[in-house]
Amino acid sequence: MDIVSVGNLTQFSKYATNSVSTAKENRNATFENLFQAAVEMVKETNEYTNAAEEAQISYALGLTDNTHDLQIAQQKANLALQYTVAIRNHVLDAYKEIMNMQF
């Protein structure tokens, strides 16, 4: 048995360590991007809701008489909220499914 050839295996372990750390960094970056997208979606939903409330107040005070713009603002806010809730429900279902996995 040649011991010198076994000593050369340390070079391969360096590559394995780097690839594992790179994979972890990629997963962290992917999660961060997903999280930022979710935060942006919630902010956008909040903006649509605020715009709908402003349109309602403006119409109630008589500052505008255009019901068409009011309905559009309300529908945008409603669709954004429904979409956000649907995404949240799917994420929670996926989380529950992962937690129920047995290894």
Task: Name some characteristics of this structure.
mainly alpha; 0% strand; 87% helix; 3 helices; 103 residues; single chain
Structural class: mainly alpha
| Largest sheet: number of strands, sense, barrel closure | none
Tally of individual domains: 1
- What oligomeric arrangement do these chains adopt? single chain
Distance between the termini: 39 Å
H/E element string?
A: HHH
Percent of residues in beta strands?
under 5%
Helix content: over 70%
The general outline is: elongated
Q: Total number of β-strand segments?
A: 0
- Gyration radius (Cα, Å) is 26 Å
- Can you tell me the residue ranges where pLDDT is under 50 for at least 5 consecutive residues? none
Number of helices: 3
Average pLDDT for all residues: 83
